[in-house]
Amino acid sequence: MTKSYTEQTMMSSEPQDSATWTDECQRSQNEQDMEKNNGALESMHGGLEDDDEDGLNRLDEDDEEEEEEEEEEEGDDQKPKRRGPKKKKMTKARMQRFKMRRHKANARERNRMHGLNDALESLRKVVPCYSKTQKLSKIETLRLAKNYIWALSEILRSGKSPDVISFVQALCRGLSQPTTNLVAGCLQLNPRTFLPEQTQEIPSHMQPASASFAAHPYSYQTPGLPSPPYGTMDSSHVFHVKPHSYGSALEPFFETALPLTDCTSPSFDGPLSPPLSVNGNFSFKHEPSSEFEKNYAFTMHYQAAAGLAGPQGHGPIYPSSAPRCEIPMENIMSYEGHTHHERVMNAQLNAIFHES
DNA sequence: TAGGCCATCTGGTCCT
DNA sequence: AGGACCAGATGGCCTA
């Protein structure tokens, strides 16, 4: 039984505070924590007395009449005399109240952050490539969500369905290398495939159909990003480039797939990979054979994007005769697991395409 | 071991 | 006054 990251962190992190708190045990835990943190708080108090105790001394001025001694550093001629309210000593009672307030504020902040994380987790589930085991980082989740929204908007705006390469390009813009590889993995697509410079080498029939998907209409620079892999689709950080052939660039996805923009091509008769279900969900079809597939269980569920609208018939990119494939992995959140609201949203998108 | 990611604590600021 | 929000600091875990 493995502990979640959160649990591990909670158990091991230095401030033993209370991620494990429940409302019931919060009080006793509070007291324990206060004991533990006493030393730190005391020292902090010392520092505050020396530097700036405005905050602290403003807090409790009601009682503590018993210790009204004002602190004056008489001996220090160097320091200019302090202005403003005279300081009060931090008495035990005041200290206790301060600690209490601090603990309450900490608990609130913790809850707030948990709520934020819950929301982020919800976002992870509705963004392509959701995996319980291989979670996207917060920042990557936000970036991918932004790209996803942009891509869906673009579909709505243009009324055309993108080809997979363009769509993945749009999704991966600005993502780090691992996430880019992850998204590519979702599609069983070699990341090199959708690199701008490499796509130029792809024969015309496999070129992205919608130019608008190949590049955002606005600059997609992400200035100030912490490390080079962010904010660029430069191939130098995606699959550390080695000489490749066109064939390898398209492996394994396009080996058997029909030209992306032509769902009705009669040339199609091979098995589809990756499988895209009738409603557009991507999923692996087979028992994971490669290490990659064993380790990463994803699902693509951009139904509204990739699958909703075919060029003419508003059908999925792949023919409905394509084998519907599922991953029998319990850690995958299937599209069916989405909320009613999400399904309604997709139904509405579907309706839009069918009406257009 | 460095770097990335994360949870938590903390003090400041703003709002109700 | 108290709560929400924010950003900086800190330390732990994980991975390349």
Automatic annotation (TrEMBL):
Subcellular localization(s) per the UniProt record: Cytoplasm; Nucleus
Source organism superkingdom: Eukaryota
Listed Acidic residues bias regions: 49-76
Domain BHLH: 100-152
Compositionally biased intervals (Polar residues): 1-31
CDD domains: bHLH_TS_NeuroD6_ATOH2
One cellular-component annotation, GO: cytoplasm
InterPro entries: bHLH_dom, bHLH_transcription_factors, HLH_DNA-bd_sf, NeuroD_DUF, TF_bHLH_NeuroD
GO biological process, one term: positive regulation of transcription by RNA polymerase II
A GO MF term: E-box binding
Region (Disordered), start-end ranges: 1-106
Biased composition (Basic residues): 80-105
Keyword Transcription attributed: yes
Transcription keyword on record: yes
Alphabetized UniProt keyword annotations: Activator, Cytoplasm, Developmental protein, Differentiation, DNA-binding, Neurogenesis, Nucleus, Transcription, Transcription regulation
PANTHER family named in the record: BASIC HELIX-LOOP-HELIX PROTEIN NEUROGENIN-RELATED, NEUROGENIC DIFFERENTIATION FACTOR 1
Subunit structure: Efficient DNA binding requires dimerization with another bHLH protein.
Protein name from the UniProt record: Neurogenic differentiation factor
Organism of derivation: Salmo salar
Annotated gene: LOC106582267
